[in-house]
Design goal:
Blueprint lengths: L2 E10 L2 E12 L9 E3 L8 H4 E4 L4 E4 L3 E2 L6 E3 L5 E3 L4 E3 L6 E6 L5 E3 L2 E3 L3 E6 L5 E3 L2 E3 L3 E6 L5 E3 L2 E3 L3 E6 L16 E2 L17 E3 L2 E3 L16 E10 L2 H5 L2 E10 L5 E11 L4 E2 L5 E6 L4 E9 L6 E11 L5 E4 L1
Parallel strand pairs: 3-7, 5-8, 6-9, 7-10, 8-11, 9-12, 10-13, 11-14, 12-15, 13-16, 14-17, 15-18, 16-19, 18-20
Antiparallel strand pairs: 1-2, 1-29, 4-5, 21-22, 23-24, 24-28, 25-27, 25-29, 26-28, 29-30
Length: 330
C-alpha cells in the first residue's frame, strides 16, 4: 500500500497545540480475470480499465496489481505501444499463457513490471525492435521466450527462479546487455563469481539462442517496484519571534518507507493548505534516499493568516526505485 495524505493542524492563541488527524489515501490492487488488450486508440484498448492511457506517447501505465485466473495477461495489438508497470505486478494462474504477449507487432516497450506464475513471463512471436527493461520475471515456467523475433533490447531485468529463464528461437540482432556501466540482466542461477567486484559476473550467461555478456552480479541487480511511502506529522512551531510576527509556521514531517525496497531521491514536489494558508518553502524540497523500514525528516513553512486556528495541508512527493524509475504520490 502506498500512503500519502493531508494533515489537519490546530492553532490557538498564536501557539501550536496539536496535530490531531492524518488523512490517508491508499493505492489498492486492481484485480482482473480476463485478458487485457492494448491498442492504439482513444482508450488504449483495455488500458483505462487497469490504468491510465497517454495517447500521445501510446503509453499504458498500470494503477494496481493484476491477477489472472488463466490464459494470457496483457496482449499488445499494435506497434509502438508502451506498457509501464509502474512497479505493479501481473500474477497468473500457474503455468498458463503469457504475462505479456507480443505477436506480429513491433517497437513495443515493457518496463517496470513484475510478472509471475505464468507459462511465459513475456512471449514474443515475429516481433521486432522491442525494448524489455526494468522488469522482474519470477517463478514462471519460462521467464522470456522469443520466437522469430529480432532487434530487441533486453537489459536491466531480473530473471528469478523461472523453470527456464530464457529461450530464443530464430530471429537476429537481439541484444541482451548494453555496454558498462548499464550491463545486462540479473539471472538468479548465474549471479557469481564477480572476482573484480565490477558488478558483473565474470563469465557471460549463455542460453538457447543468445548470450548476456555482462550479467549482473548478486542481488546488486536493480529491482523495480514502487516504494511504499507514508507521511506522518512530527511537530509544528514558530521557529523564532520573527517567524511568529510574520506568521511563518514551521511544520516537521516524517516521510517513511514501509516497503521492502529502498526509495531514492525522494522530494516534496507540491504542498497546499486550506483556509488561505500558503506554503512559503521553495519547492521542491529534497528529502533524500530512504532505506526500507526507515524514515526521513523534512520541514515546510506555511504563512498562516491571523485568525486561522486550523488548516489542512496536502503534500505530493516524488521518489525513484532501485532501477531509477520515477514515481509520484499520491
Amino acid at each position: 500500500m502506498n500512503y500519502l495524505g493531508g494533515k489537519i493542524i490546530h492553532l490557538a492563541a498564536g501557539l501550536v497545540m496539536a496535530a490531531v488527524l492524518l488523512t490517508l489515501t491508499a493505492s489498492v490492487a486492481v484485480s482482473a480475470e480476463s485478458t487485457k488488450y492494448l491498442r492504439d486508440n482513444a482508450t488504449g484498448g483495455d488500458c483505462t480499465a487497469v490504468g491510465s492511457w497517454d495517447q500521445y506517447s501510446l503509453t499504458c501505465t498500470l494503477s494496481g496489481d493484476l491477477v489472472f485466473s488463466g490464459g494470457n495477461g496483457i496482449v499488445f495489438m499494435n506497434d509502438g505501444v508502451t506498457l509501464d508497470g509502474n512497479g505493479y505486478s501481473l500474477t497468473g494462474g500457474g503455468g498458463y499463457g503469457a504475462g505479456c504477449s507480443i505477436s506480429i507487432h513491433g517497437s513495443v516497450t515493457i518496463r517496470n513490471l513484475t510478472i509471475r506464475q505464468f507459462g511465459y513471463g513475456i512471449y514474443t512471436l515475429s516481433s521486432h525492435d522491442d525494448i524489455i527493461t526494468g522488469n522482474s520475471m519470477e517463478n514462471n515456467d519460462i521467464g522470456l521466450k522469443m520466437s522469430a523475433s529480432g532487434d530487441a533490447q533486453v537489459y536491466g531485468n531480473s530473471f528469478i527462479d523461472n523453470g527456464t529463464q530464457i529461450t530464443v528461437q530464430g530471429g537476429s540482432g537481439n541484444v541482451f546487455n548494453l555496454p558498462a556501466p548499464v550491463g545486462g540482466n540479473y539471472w538468479s542461477n548465474w549471479a557469481q563469481p564477480d572476482s573484480d567486484n565490477d558488478g558483473f559476473v565474470d563469465d557471460p550467461y549463455i542460453f538457447t539462442g543468445g548470450r548476456d555478456d555482462l550479467p549482473l552480479a548478486g542481488m546488486s541487480a536493480c529491482m523495480p517496484g514502487k516504494p511504499e511511502l507514508s507521511l506522518s506529522f512530527s511537530q509544528a512551531y514558530w521557529f523564532n519571534n520573527a517567524d511568529y510576527q510574520s506568521r511563518q509556521l514551521s511544520v516537521d514531517y516524517l516521510l517513511g518507507n514501509q516497503g521492502a525496497g529502498d526509495a531514492f531521491a525522494a522530494q516534496v514536489t507540491g504542498s497546499t493548505g486550506s483556509n488561505d494558508v500558503v506554503t512559503s518553502s521553495p519547492l521542491p524540497v529534497g528529502v533524500g534516499d530512504i532505506t526500507a523500514g526507515a524514515t526521513a525528516p523534512f520541514t515546510l513553512k506555511y504563512v498562516v493568516p491571523p485568525g486561522v486556528t486550523i488548516f489542512r495541508s496536502s503534500l505530493s512527493v516524488a521518489a525513484a526505485d532501485d532501477c531509477g524509475n520515477g514515481y509520484s504520490y499520491p
